[in-house]
Input
Amino acid sequence: GKVTFIINSNDKTLNIKKTTVNVNEEKITLWGTFTKLPDNVKFNLTFKAPNANFGNIRSSLTGFLEKKLSLVDVEKDIALEAYLEGKLAYPDTPTVRILCTTKDNTLTADFGTFTHANFSFEYYNYVKEGHGHSDSNSMVAFKKFSGEFEGIPFQSIKFRLDNLITPYARGKINANFDATKLAPLAAGTFDFTRGSVTVDVTYSGPLKEDDNRKRSLDGKVILSNADLTYEPRNLDFKNCAAQLFFDNDDLYFKNIEINRFNDKIKMNGYAKQFMNFYFKDPTKVNLNFDVSANQFTVANYLGFINRNARRSTSTSTANKLAKVNKNLANFTDASTMHLNLDLKNITYKTFRSNRGQADISLLPNAIAINKANIKFNNGSIGAAGKIETSTANKDFNLDADLQNVDIGQLLAAFDNFGQPTLNARNIIGKINLDATIRGILNKEAALIPNSLDGNLKFNVERGLLKDFEPLEKLEKYALNTRDLSNLEINKLDGNFRVRDGKVYIPPTQINTSAITLFLQGVYGIKDGTLLSMMIPLRNPKKDEIKKAEGVEVDKTKGIKLYLEARDGKDGKVNISWQKKADRPSYSQ
Output
Protein backbone atom coordinates (compact mmCIF):
# COMPACT_ATOMS: atom_id res chain seq x y z
CA GLY A 1 0.00 0.00 0.00
CA LYS A 2 0.87 3.66 -0.01
CA VAL A 3 2.22 4.98 3.29
CA THR A 4 2.90 8.66 4.03
CA PHE A 5 5.51 9.59 6.65
CA ILE A 6 5.60 13.12 8.12
CA ILE A 7 8.93 14.03 9.73
CA ASN A 8 9.25 16.89 12.22
CA SER A 9 12.90 17.72 12.93
CA ASN A 10 12.07 20.08 15.75
CA ASP A 11 9.97 17.52 17.67
CA LYS A 12 12.19 14.69 16.48
CA THR A 13 9.09 12.72 15.45
CA LEU A 14 8.09 10.59 12.51
CA ASN A 15 4.32 10.36 12.04
CA ILE A 16 2.60 7.74 9.89
CA LYS A 17 -0.44 9.29 8.33
CA LYS A 18 -3.63 7.19 8.59
CA THR A 19 -3.68 4.85 5.62
CA THR A 20 -4.96 1.48 4.50
CA VAL A 21 -2.61 -1.29 3.41
CA ASN A 22 -3.01 -4.93 2.37
CA VAL A 23 -1.40 -7.52 4.65
CA ASN A 24 -1.89 -11.13 3.67
CA GLU A 25 -4.90 -10.06 1.58
CA GLU A 26 -6.42 -8.21 4.57
CA LYS A 27 -7.13 -4.46 4.53
CA ILE A 28 -5.63 -2.87 7.63
CA THR A 29 -5.79 0.80 8.49
CA LEU A 30 -2.74 2.02 10.43
CA TRP A 31 -1.29 5.21 11.85
CA GLY A 32 1.15 6.16 14.59
CA THR A 33 4.21 8.09 15.78
CA PHE A 34 7.92 7.42 16.33
CA THR A 35 9.67 9.86 18.70
CA LYS A 36 13.46 10.20 19.05
CA LEU A 37 14.63 10.12 22.66
CA PRO A 38 18.18 10.81 23.92
CA ASP A 39 18.96 7.10 24.15
CA ASN A 40 16.10 5.37 22.31
CA VAL A 41 13.17 5.68 19.97
CA LYS A 42 9.62 5.57 21.36
CA PHE A 43 6.69 4.49 19.19
CA ASN A 44 2.91 4.51 19.42
CA LEU A 45 1.02 2.60 16.69
CA THR A 46 -2.62 1.83 15.95
CA PHE A 47 -3.97 -0.88 13.61
CA LYS A 48 -7.60 -1.41 12.66
CA ALA A 49 -9.17 -4.17 10.54
CA PRO A 50 -12.98 -3.87 10.57
CA ASN A 51 -13.50 -6.97 8.43
CA ALA A 52 -10.56 -9.26 9.11
CA ASN A 53 -10.16 -12.93 8.34
CA PHE A 54 -8.78 -14.48 11.52
CA GLY A 55 -6.69 -17.08 9.69
CA ASN A 56 -5.02 -14.51 7.45
CA ILE A 57 -4.25 -12.22 10.37
CA ARG A 58 -2.88 -15.11 12.40
CA SER A 59 -0.57 -16.30 9.62
CA SER A 60 0.87 -12.81 9.21
CA LEU A 61 2.27 -12.83 12.75
CA THR A 62 5.55 -14.27 13.99
CA GLY A 63 5.67 -18.03 14.49
CA PHE A 64 5.59 -17.70 18.26
CA LEU A 65 2.35 -15.68 18.25
CA GLU A 66 0.81 -17.68 15.43
CA LYS A 67 1.25 -20.86 17.45
CA LYS A 68 -0.54 -19.34 20.43
CA LEU A 69 -3.48 -18.25 18.32
CA SER A 70 -3.69 -21.60 16.51
CA LEU A 71 -5.65 -22.98 19.48
CA VAL A 72 -8.73 -21.20 18.12
CA ASP A 73 -10.38 -21.01 14.69
CA VAL A 74 -12.90 -18.30 13.77
CA GLU A 75 -15.26 -18.88 10.86
CA LYS A 76 -16.47 -15.40 9.88
CA ASP A 77 -14.71 -12.04 9.65
CA ILE A 78 -14.06 -10.09 12.85
CA ALA A 79 -13.43 -6.45 13.70
CA LEU A 80 -9.94 -5.97 15.15
CA GLU A 81 -8.10 -3.05 16.75
CA ALA A 82 -4.53 -3.19 18.03
CA TYR A 83 -2.61 -0.55 19.99
CA LEU A 84 1.17 -0.90 20.45
CA GLU A 85 3.41 1.33 22.52
CA GLY A 86 7.09 0.76 23.24
CA LYS A 87 10.72 1.44 22.41
CA LEU A 88 12.94 0.10 19.64
CA ALA A 89 16.04 -0.74 21.67
CA TYR A 90 16.48 -4.32 22.83
CA PRO A 91 15.22 -5.85 25.16
CA ASP A 92 12.08 -3.70 25.29
CA THR A 93 8.71 -5.41 24.71
CA PRO A 94 5.85 -3.07 23.76
CA THR A 95 2.60 -2.80 25.62
CA VAL A 96 -0.12 -4.37 23.51
CA ARG A 97 -3.85 -3.82 23.68
CA ILE A 98 -6.11 -5.70 21.26
CA LEU A 99 -9.87 -5.22 20.88
CA CYS A 100 -12.10 -7.57 18.93
CA THR A 101 -15.85 -7.58 18.23
CA THR A 102 -17.98 -9.99 16.22
CA LYS A 103 -21.61 -10.99 15.66
CA ASP A 104 -23.16 -14.37 14.86
CA ASN A 105 -19.78 -16.04 14.48
CA THR A 106 -18.44 -19.55 15.08
CA LEU A 107 -15.40 -20.23 17.25
CA THR A 108 -13.81 -23.66 17.41
CA ALA A 109 -11.31 -24.80 20.06
CA ASP A 110 -10.07 -28.10 21.47
CA PHE A 111 -12.67 -28.03 24.25
CA GLY A 112 -15.70 -27.32 22.03
CA THR A 113 -17.44 -25.01 19.58
CA PHE A 114 -19.24 -21.71 20.08
CA THR A 115 -21.90 -20.90 17.49
CA HIS A 116 -23.98 -17.74 16.94
CA ALA A 117 -21.33 -16.02 19.05
CA ASN A 118 -21.59 -12.29 19.78
CA PHE A 119 -18.94 -10.69 21.94
CA SER A 120 -16.44 -7.91 22.63
CA PHE A 121 -12.94 -9.08 23.46
CA GLU A 122 -9.93 -7.32 24.98
CA TYR A 123 -6.31 -8.42 25.42
CA TYR A 124 -3.78 -6.37 27.41
CA ASN A 125 -0.23 -7.37 28.33
CA TYR A 126 0.44 -4.84 31.09
CA VAL A 127 -1.92 -5.38 34.03
CA LYS A 128 0.29 -4.74 37.09
CA GLU A 129 2.73 -1.84 37.31
CA GLY A 130 6.34 -2.97 37.38
CA HIS A 131 5.69 -6.59 36.31
CA GLY A 132 6.71 -6.19 32.67
CA HIS A 133 4.94 -6.83 29.39
CA SER A 134 4.67 -10.63 29.35
CA ASP A 135 2.19 -13.51 29.42
CA SER A 136 2.38 -13.64 33.20
CA ASN A 137 1.23 -9.99 33.38
CA SER A 138 -1.39 -10.26 30.62
CA MET A 139 -5.15 -10.48 30.75
CA VAL A 140 -7.96 -11.51 28.45
CA ALA A 141 -11.53 -10.26 28.91
CA PHE A 142 -14.80 -11.08 27.16
CA LYS A 143 -17.75 -8.71 27.50
CA LYS A 144 -21.35 -9.21 26.42
CA PHE A 145 -20.59 -12.74 25.22
CA SER A 146 -23.71 -14.61 24.03
CA GLY A 147 -24.34 -17.57 21.76
CA GLU A 148 -24.35 -21.36 21.99
CA PHE A 149 -21.68 -23.69 23.32
CA GLU A 150 -22.04 -27.17 21.78
CA GLY A 151 -25.73 -26.43 21.31
CA ILE A 152 -26.22 -24.98 24.80
CA PRO A 153 -27.48 -21.40 24.53
CA PHE A 154 -26.24 -18.77 26.98
CA GLN A 155 -27.48 -15.22 27.23
CA SER A 156 -24.47 -13.56 28.82
CA ILE A 157 -20.92 -14.38 29.79
CA LYS A 158 -18.52 -11.91 31.35
CA PHE A 159 -15.12 -13.50 31.55
CA ARG A 160 -11.64 -12.32 32.49
CA LEU A 161 -8.45 -14.32 32.49
CA ASP A 162 -5.31 -13.06 34.23
CA ASN A 163 -1.81 -14.49 33.77
CA LEU A 164 -1.58 -16.63 30.63
CA ILE A 165 1.18 -18.79 32.15
CA THR A 166 -0.84 -19.91 35.19
CA PRO A 167 -4.29 -18.60 34.21
CA TYR A 168 -6.69 -17.34 36.86
CA ALA A 169 -10.26 -16.78 35.71
CA ARG A 170 -13.16 -14.65 36.84
CA GLY A 171 -16.44 -14.99 35.03
CA LYS A 172 -20.22 -14.71 35.22
CA ILE A 173 -22.60 -16.90 33.21
CA ASN A 174 -26.34 -16.40 32.64
CA ALA A 175 -28.19 -19.00 30.59
CA ASN A 176 -31.63 -20.50 30.13
CA PHE A 177 -32.00 -23.56 27.90
CA ASP A 178 -33.64 -26.92 27.26
CA ALA A 179 -32.16 -29.68 29.45
CA THR A 180 -31.70 -31.94 26.41
CA LYS A 181 -28.93 -29.55 25.33
CA LEU A 182 -26.78 -30.97 28.15
CA ALA A 183 -26.22 -34.18 26.18
CA PRO A 184 -22.63 -33.44 25.04
CA LEU A 185 -21.56 -32.35 28.53
CA ALA A 186 -23.24 -35.18 30.47
CA ALA A 187 -22.83 -38.08 28.01
CA GLY A 188 -22.51 -41.40 29.81
CA THR A 189 -23.70 -39.95 33.13
CA PHE A 190 -27.08 -38.23 32.71
CA ASP A 191 -29.35 -38.46 29.70
CA PHE A 192 -31.99 -35.70 29.73
CA THR A 193 -35.05 -36.16 27.53
CA ARG A 194 -37.07 -33.21 28.83
CA GLY A 195 -36.79 -30.18 31.10
CA SER A 196 -35.38 -26.68 31.39
CA VAL A 197 -32.21 -25.32 32.99
CA THR A 198 -31.51 -21.82 34.33
CA VAL A 199 -27.92 -20.85 35.18
CA ASP A 200 -26.76 -17.73 37.02
CA VAL A 201 -23.26 -18.30 38.43
CA THR A 202 -19.99 -16.45 39.01
CA TYR A 203 -16.67 -18.32 38.99
CA SER A 204 -13.23 -17.34 40.21
CA GLY A 205 -10.24 -19.62 40.31
CA PRO A 206 -7.49 -21.25 38.24
CA LEU A 207 -8.24 -22.51 34.76
CA LYS A 208 -5.79 -25.38 34.63
CA GLU A 209 -6.99 -28.64 36.15
CA ASP A 210 -3.75 -29.33 38.06
CA ASP A 211 -3.58 -25.82 39.58
CA ASN A 212 -4.08 -26.08 43.35
CA ARG A 213 -5.13 -22.49 43.95
CA LYS A 214 -8.57 -22.12 45.52
CA ARG A 215 -11.67 -22.12 43.34
CA SER A 216 -15.01 -20.55 44.18
CA LEU A 217 -18.40 -20.56 42.52
CA ASP A 218 -21.35 -18.42 43.56
CA GLY A 219 -24.87 -18.43 42.22
CA LYS A 220 -27.53 -20.96 41.31
CA VAL A 221 -28.58 -23.61 38.80
CA ILE A 222 -32.30 -24.43 38.56
CA LEU A 223 -33.61 -27.62 36.94
CA SER A 224 -37.36 -27.83 36.20
CA ASN A 225 -39.78 -30.42 34.76
CA ALA A 226 -36.95 -32.78 33.80
CA ASP A 227 -37.08 -36.40 32.65
CA LEU A 228 -33.72 -38.14 32.84
CA THR A 229 -31.84 -41.41 33.02
CA TYR A 230 -28.98 -41.90 35.46
CA GLU A 231 -26.91 -44.00 33.08
CA PRO A 232 -24.35 -45.62 35.45
CA ARG A 233 -27.29 -47.35 37.22
CA ASN A 234 -29.78 -47.33 34.30
CA LEU A 235 -32.48 -45.65 36.40
CA ASP A 236 -35.18 -43.43 34.88
CA PHE A 237 -36.71 -40.48 36.75
CA LYS A 238 -39.62 -38.31 35.65
CA ASN A 239 -40.77 -34.75 36.26
CA CYS A 240 -37.75 -33.84 38.36
CA ALA A 241 -36.85 -30.49 39.87
CA ALA A 242 -33.77 -29.26 41.70
CA GLN A 243 -32.18 -26.06 42.94
CA LEU A 244 -28.39 -25.98 43.28
CA PHE A 245 -26.87 -23.07 45.17
CA PHE A 246 -23.12 -22.45 45.05
CA ASP A 247 -21.56 -20.51 47.91
CA ASN A 248 -17.83 -19.96 47.43
CA ASP A 249 -16.43 -23.50 47.82
CA ASP A 250 -19.64 -25.20 49.01
CA LEU A 251 -22.67 -26.58 47.20
CA TYR A 252 -26.23 -26.75 48.58
CA PHE A 253 -29.16 -28.71 47.16
CA LYS A 254 -32.67 -27.47 47.89
CA ASN A 255 -36.19 -28.58 46.99
CA ILE A 256 -35.12 -31.58 44.96
CA GLU A 257 -38.04 -33.68 43.75
CA ILE A 258 -37.61 -36.86 41.73
CA ASN A 259 -40.29 -39.29 40.64
CA ARG A 260 -39.83 -42.94 39.78
CA PHE A 261 -43.06 -44.68 38.84
CA ASN A 262 -45.44 -43.87 41.72
CA ASP A 263 -42.72 -42.87 44.17
CA LYS A 264 -42.22 -39.16 44.82
CA ILE A 265 -38.96 -38.45 46.63
CA LYS A 266 -37.94 -35.15 48.21
CA MET A 267 -34.32 -34.26 49.00
CA ASN A 268 -32.25 -31.46 50.50
CA GLY A 269 -28.51 -31.59 51.01
CA TYR A 270 -25.04 -30.11 50.77
CA ALA A 271 -21.41 -30.81 49.83
CA LYS A 272 -18.70 -28.91 51.70
CA GLN A 273 -15.55 -27.89 49.79
CA PHE A 274 -17.19 -29.20 46.64
CA MET A 275 -15.43 -27.01 44.09
CA ASN A 276 -11.85 -27.80 45.07
CA PHE A 277 -12.42 -31.51 45.70
CA TYR A 278 -14.24 -31.84 42.36
CA PHE A 279 -11.09 -30.86 40.48
CA LYS A 280 -8.39 -32.13 42.86
CA ASP A 281 -9.73 -35.39 44.28
CA PRO A 282 -13.38 -36.43 43.62
CA THR A 283 -13.04 -39.26 46.15
CA LYS A 284 -13.11 -36.60 48.88
CA VAL A 285 -16.45 -35.16 47.77
CA ASN A 286 -19.12 -36.03 50.32
CA LEU A 287 -22.69 -35.38 49.23
CA ASN A 288 -25.08 -35.32 52.18
CA PHE A 289 -28.83 -35.60 51.66
CA ASP A 290 -31.96 -35.76 53.80
CA VAL A 291 -34.42 -37.91 51.84
CA SER A 292 -38.14 -38.35 52.48
CA ALA A 293 -40.99 -40.11 50.68
CA ASN A 294 -44.60 -40.98 51.52
CA GLN A 295 -44.28 -44.09 49.35
CA PHE A 296 -41.14 -46.08 48.63
CA THR A 297 -40.96 -49.21 46.47
CA VAL A 298 -37.61 -50.89 47.11
CA ALA A 299 -37.66 -52.78 43.80
CA ASN A 300 -37.55 -49.45 41.93
CA TYR A 301 -34.02 -48.75 43.18
CA LEU A 302 -32.29 -52.13 42.99
CA GLY A 303 -30.36 -50.67 40.04
CA PHE A 304 -28.15 -48.91 42.59
CA ILE A 305 -26.43 -52.24 43.29
CA ASN A 306 -25.49 -52.60 39.61
CA ARG A 307 -23.04 -50.45 37.67
CA ASN A 308 -23.32 -50.25 33.88
CA ALA A 309 -20.20 -50.14 31.74
CA ARG A 310 -19.56 -46.51 30.92
CA ARG A 311 -20.55 -45.68 27.37
CA SER A 312 -17.65 -44.85 25.09
CA THR A 313 -17.69 -41.56 23.19
CA SER A 314 -16.51 -41.43 19.60
CA THR A 315 -18.10 -38.37 17.98
CA SER A 316 -16.04 -35.25 17.32
CA THR A 317 -18.14 -33.33 19.82
CA ALA A 318 -17.65 -35.98 22.47
CA ASN A 319 -13.89 -36.00 21.83
CA LYS A 320 -13.70 -32.24 22.29
CA LEU A 321 -15.61 -32.51 25.54
CA ALA A 322 -13.80 -35.64 26.73
CA LYS A 323 -12.20 -33.79 29.65
CA VAL A 324 -15.52 -32.36 30.80
CA ASN A 325 -17.16 -35.78 30.53
CA LYS A 326 -14.22 -37.39 32.32
CA ASN A 327 -14.43 -34.95 35.23
CA LEU A 328 -18.17 -35.53 35.60
CA ALA A 329 -17.74 -39.31 35.29
CA ASN A 330 -14.92 -39.32 37.85
CA PHE A 331 -17.09 -37.30 40.19
CA THR A 332 -20.15 -39.58 39.93
CA ASP A 333 -17.98 -42.71 40.14
CA ALA A 334 -15.63 -41.67 42.92
CA SER A 335 -17.63 -39.42 45.24
CA THR A 336 -19.54 -40.59 48.31
CA MET A 337 -23.25 -39.91 48.81
CA HIS A 338 -24.53 -39.98 52.36
CA LEU A 339 -28.31 -40.41 52.74
CA ASN A 340 -30.50 -39.91 55.79
CA LEU A 341 -33.73 -41.64 54.78
CA ASP A 342 -37.15 -41.09 56.34
CA LEU A 343 -39.60 -43.24 54.36
CA LYS A 344 -43.23 -44.22 54.71
CA ASN A 345 -45.27 -47.05 53.16
CA ILE A 346 -42.25 -49.14 52.17
CA THR A 347 -42.86 -52.20 49.98
CA TYR A 348 -40.56 -55.01 48.89
CA LYS A 349 -42.30 -57.87 47.11
CA THR A 350 -44.96 -58.94 49.66
CA PHE A 351 -43.21 -57.16 52.51
CA ARG A 352 -44.87 -54.02 53.87
CA SER A 353 -43.64 -51.43 56.34
CA ASN A 354 -45.40 -48.27 57.42
CA ARG A 355 -42.17 -46.43 58.38
CA GLY A 356 -38.45 -46.80 57.87
CA GLN A 357 -35.42 -44.71 58.77
CA ALA A 358 -31.89 -45.35 57.61
CA ASP A 359 -28.41 -43.90 57.42
CA ILE A 360 -26.87 -45.11 54.13
CA SER A 361 -23.67 -44.28 52.25
CA LEU A 362 -23.36 -44.82 48.48
CA LEU A 363 -19.65 -45.49 48.07
CA PRO A 364 -17.72 -45.80 44.78
CA ASN A 365 -17.91 -49.61 44.85
CA ALA A 366 -20.34 -50.40 47.65
CA ILE A 367 -23.48 -49.47 49.52
CA ALA A 368 -22.97 -49.16 53.27
CA ILE A 369 -25.99 -49.46 55.55
CA ASN A 370 -24.63 -47.61 58.57
CA LYS A 371 -27.86 -47.90 60.52
CA ALA A 372 -31.42 -48.79 59.56
CA ASN A 373 -34.66 -49.36 61.41
CA ILE A 374 -37.85 -50.49 59.71
CA LYS A 375 -41.15 -50.65 61.57
CA PHE A 376 -44.30 -52.55 60.60
CA ASN A 377 -47.29 -53.64 62.60
CA ASN A 378 -45.86 -54.08 66.11
CA GLY A 379 -42.44 -55.27 65.01
CA SER A 380 -39.16 -53.79 63.82
CA ILE A 381 -35.99 -54.68 61.94
CA GLY A 382 -32.68 -53.06 62.78
CA ALA A 383 -29.79 -53.57 60.37
CA ALA A 384 -26.25 -52.54 59.47
CA GLY A 385 -24.05 -53.91 56.73
CA LYS A 386 -22.45 -53.47 53.33
CA ILE A 387 -23.12 -54.57 49.74
CA GLU A 388 -20.29 -54.60 47.19
CA THR A 389 -21.45 -53.24 43.82
CA SER A 390 -18.44 -53.40 41.51
CA THR A 391 -19.09 -56.95 40.20
CA ALA A 392 -22.04 -58.80 38.66
CA ASN A 393 -22.51 -60.88 41.82
CA LYS A 394 -22.53 -58.79 44.98
CA ASP A 395 -20.90 -59.87 48.23
CA PHE A 396 -22.75 -58.57 51.25
CA ASN A 397 -22.55 -58.72 55.02
CA LEU A 398 -25.34 -57.86 57.41
CA ASP A 399 -26.00 -57.58 61.12
CA ALA A 400 -29.73 -57.71 61.76
CA ASP A 401 -31.90 -57.44 64.85
CA LEU A 402 -35.54 -58.45 64.36
CA GLN A 403 -38.08 -57.85 67.08
CA ASN A 404 -41.63 -59.25 66.95
CA VAL A 405 -41.53 -59.70 63.14
CA ASP A 406 -44.16 -61.68 61.24
CA ILE A 407 -42.35 -64.83 60.06
CA GLY A 408 -44.49 -65.35 56.96
CA GLN A 409 -43.87 -61.82 55.70
CA LEU A 410 -40.17 -62.20 56.35
CA LEU A 411 -39.90 -65.46 54.37
CA ALA A 412 -41.91 -64.08 51.45
CA ALA A 413 -39.90 -60.87 51.24
CA PHE A 414 -36.51 -62.62 51.18
CA ASP A 415 -37.31 -65.57 48.90
CA ASN A 416 -37.42 -68.01 51.84
CA PHE A 417 -33.68 -67.32 52.25
CA GLY A 418 -32.94 -69.73 49.44
CA GLN A 419 -34.56 -72.81 51.05
CA PRO A 420 -37.62 -74.57 49.54
CA THR A 421 -39.02 -76.32 52.62
CA LEU A 422 -40.57 -73.61 54.78
CA ASN A 423 -42.62 -70.78 53.33
CA ALA A 424 -45.24 -68.24 54.29
CA ARG A 425 -48.07 -70.77 53.82
CA ASN A 426 -46.63 -73.09 56.46
CA ILE A 427 -46.00 -70.81 59.40
CA ILE A 428 -47.77 -68.13 61.38
CA GLY A 429 -46.19 -66.26 64.24
CA LYS A 430 -43.68 -63.68 65.39
CA ILE A 431 -39.94 -64.05 65.62
CA ASN A 432 -37.12 -62.31 67.47
CA LEU A 433 -33.87 -62.79 65.59
CA ASP A 434 -30.26 -61.70 66.02
CA ALA A 435 -28.32 -62.49 62.85
CA THR A 436 -24.78 -61.94 61.62
CA ILE A 437 -24.60 -63.17 58.05
CA ARG A 438 -22.84 -62.74 54.75
CA GLY A 439 -23.66 -63.96 51.29
CA ILE A 440 -23.88 -63.15 47.59
CA LEU A 441 -26.67 -61.42 45.66
CA ASN A 442 -27.23 -61.55 41.92
CA LYS A 443 -27.96 -58.44 39.84
CA GLU A 444 -31.69 -58.72 40.68
CA ALA A 445 -30.73 -58.59 44.39
CA ALA A 446 -31.85 -62.21 44.91
CA LEU A 447 -29.78 -64.46 47.18
CA ILE A 448 -27.52 -66.86 45.28
CA PRO A 449 -28.22 -70.42 46.54
CA ASN A 450 -25.80 -71.85 49.09
CA SER A 451 -24.00 -68.50 49.51
CA LEU A 452 -25.36 -67.63 52.96
CA ASP A 453 -22.89 -67.88 55.83
CA GLY A 454 -23.38 -66.75 59.42
CA ASN A 455 -25.07 -67.21 62.77
CA LEU A 456 -28.76 -66.96 63.61
CA LYS A 457 -30.02 -66.67 67.15
CA PHE A 458 -33.79 -66.62 67.33
CA ASN A 459 -36.86 -66.99 69.50
CA VAL A 460 -40.39 -67.89 68.37
CA GLU A 461 -43.41 -67.76 70.64
CA ARG A 462 -47.05 -68.65 69.93
CA GLY A 463 -46.34 -69.78 66.40
CA LEU A 464 -48.36 -72.13 64.21
CA LEU A 465 -47.04 -74.70 61.72
CA LYS A 466 -49.52 -75.72 59.02
CA ASP A 467 -49.15 -78.49 56.44
CA PHE A 468 -45.39 -78.62 56.97
CA GLU A 469 -44.18 -81.53 54.83
CA PRO A 470 -41.38 -82.87 57.11
CA LEU A 471 -43.82 -83.09 60.04
CA GLU A 472 -46.48 -84.69 57.85
CA LYS A 473 -43.92 -87.34 56.87
CA LEU A 474 -43.15 -87.85 60.54
CA GLU A 475 -46.84 -88.29 61.28
CA LYS A 476 -47.21 -90.97 58.59
CA TYR A 477 -44.05 -92.74 59.65
CA ALA A 478 -44.30 -93.01 63.42
CA LEU A 479 -46.92 -90.74 64.97
CA ASN A 480 -50.13 -91.43 63.11
CA THR A 481 -52.09 -91.04 66.33
CA ARG A 482 -51.22 -87.37 66.51
CA ASP A 483 -52.22 -84.54 64.20
CA LEU A 484 -49.00 -82.84 63.07
CA SER A 485 -50.54 -80.85 60.23
CA ASN A 486 -51.63 -77.98 62.46
CA LEU A 487 -49.14 -77.52 65.29
CA GLU A 488 -49.00 -74.73 67.81
CA ILE A 489 -45.45 -73.79 68.81
CA ASN A 490 -45.42 -72.75 72.43
CA LYS A 491 -41.78 -71.76 72.49
CA LEU A 492 -38.78 -72.25 70.24
CA ASP A 493 -35.26 -70.96 70.88
CA GLY A 494 -32.45 -71.63 68.45
CA ASN A 495 -28.86 -70.73 67.71
CA PHE A 496 -28.05 -72.00 64.23
CA ARG A 497 -24.98 -71.72 62.02
CA VAL A 498 -25.47 -71.36 58.26
CA ARG A 499 -22.65 -72.25 55.84
CA ASP A 500 -22.33 -73.58 52.29
CA GLY A 501 -26.03 -74.17 51.85
CA LYS A 502 -26.40 -76.04 55.12
CA VAL A 503 -27.90 -75.14 58.49
CA TYR A 504 -26.01 -76.60 61.44
CA ILE A 505 -28.44 -77.17 64.31
CA PRO A 506 -27.13 -77.74 67.84
CA PRO A 507 -29.30 -79.68 70.36
CA THR A 508 -32.63 -77.86 70.14
CA GLN A 509 -35.95 -78.45 71.89
CA ILE A 510 -39.17 -77.70 70.02
CA ASN A 511 -42.31 -77.51 72.13
CA THR A 512 -45.58 -77.88 70.23
CA SER A 513 -49.17 -78.63 71.05
CA ALA A 514 -48.86 -82.27 69.89
CA ILE A 515 -45.26 -83.33 70.53
CA THR A 516 -42.00 -82.27 72.10
CA LEU A 517 -39.19 -82.72 69.61
CA PHE A 518 -35.47 -82.83 70.39
CA LEU A 519 -33.45 -82.11 67.26
CA GLN A 520 -29.84 -81.73 66.14
CA GLY A 521 -27.71 -82.21 63.04
CA VAL A 522 -27.49 -80.66 59.58
CA TYR A 523 -30.30 -79.42 57.37
CA GLY A 524 -29.27 -79.09 53.72
CA ILE A 525 -31.07 -76.32 51.89
CA LYS A 526 -30.71 -78.32 48.67
CA ASP A 527 -28.96 -81.48 49.85
CA GLY A 528 -26.83 -82.79 52.67
CA THR A 529 -29.59 -83.20 55.30
CA LEU A 530 -28.76 -85.48 58.23
CA LEU A 531 -30.89 -84.76 61.29
CA SER A 532 -31.23 -86.78 64.48
CA MET A 533 -34.57 -86.58 66.30
CA MET A 534 -35.76 -87.78 69.68
CA ILE A 535 -39.51 -87.66 70.36
CA PRO A 536 -40.71 -88.55 73.90
CA LEU A 537 -44.23 -90.01 73.69
CA ARG A 538 -45.48 -87.69 76.38
CA ASN A 539 -48.59 -85.61 76.17
CA PRO A 540 -47.42 -81.97 76.04
CA LYS A 541 -50.77 -80.70 77.29
CA LYS A 542 -50.56 -82.82 80.45
CA ASP A 543 -46.99 -81.59 81.00
CA GLU A 544 -48.20 -78.00 80.82
CA ILE A 545 -50.92 -78.72 83.38
CA LYS A 546 -48.32 -80.24 85.76
CA LYS A 547 -46.03 -77.23 85.32
CA ALA A 548 -48.92 -74.91 86.11
CA GLU A 549 -49.49 -76.88 89.35
CA GLY A 550 -45.83 -76.44 90.30
CA VAL A 551 -44.78 -80.00 89.47
CA GLU A 552 -41.30 -80.31 87.94
CA VAL A 553 -41.48 -81.91 84.49
CA ASP A 554 -38.67 -83.72 82.67
CA LYS A 555 -39.78 -83.92 79.07
CA THR A 556 -37.05 -86.41 78.18
CA LYS A 557 -38.54 -89.11 80.42
CA GLY A 558 -40.76 -91.91 79.19
CA ILE A 559 -40.89 -93.88 76.00
CA LYS A 560 -38.92 -92.20 73.24
CA LEU A 561 -38.72 -92.54 69.49
CA TYR A 562 -35.32 -92.10 67.86
CA LEU A 563 -35.49 -91.12 64.20
CA GLU A 564 -33.25 -89.62 61.57
CA ALA A 565 -33.96 -87.53 58.48
CA ARG A 566 -31.58 -88.11 55.60
CA ASP A 567 -31.41 -87.27 51.90
CA GLY A 568 -32.69 -90.10 49.74
CA LYS A 569 -31.66 -91.14 46.26
CA ASP A 570 -34.75 -89.42 44.87
CA GLY A 571 -33.53 -86.08 46.24
CA LYS A 572 -36.20 -85.97 48.93
CA VAL A 573 -35.68 -86.24 52.67
CA ASN A 574 -36.56 -89.68 54.05
CA ILE A 575 -37.27 -90.53 57.70
CA SER A 576 -36.16 -93.77 59.27
CA TRP A 577 -35.43 -95.33 62.64
CA GLN A 578 -32.09 -94.42 64.10
CA LYS A 579 -29.71 -97.08 65.36
CA LYS A 580 -28.77 -96.91 68.99
CA ALA A 581 -25.10 -96.50 68.13
CA ASP A 582 -25.89 -93.42 66.03
CA ARG A 583 -27.97 -91.62 68.64
CA PRO A 584 -26.36 -88.37 69.87
CA SER A 585 -26.69 -86.79 73.26
CA TYR A 586 -29.55 -84.28 73.42
CA SER A 587 -28.27 -82.37 76.41
CA GLN A 588 -28.24 -78.66 75.66
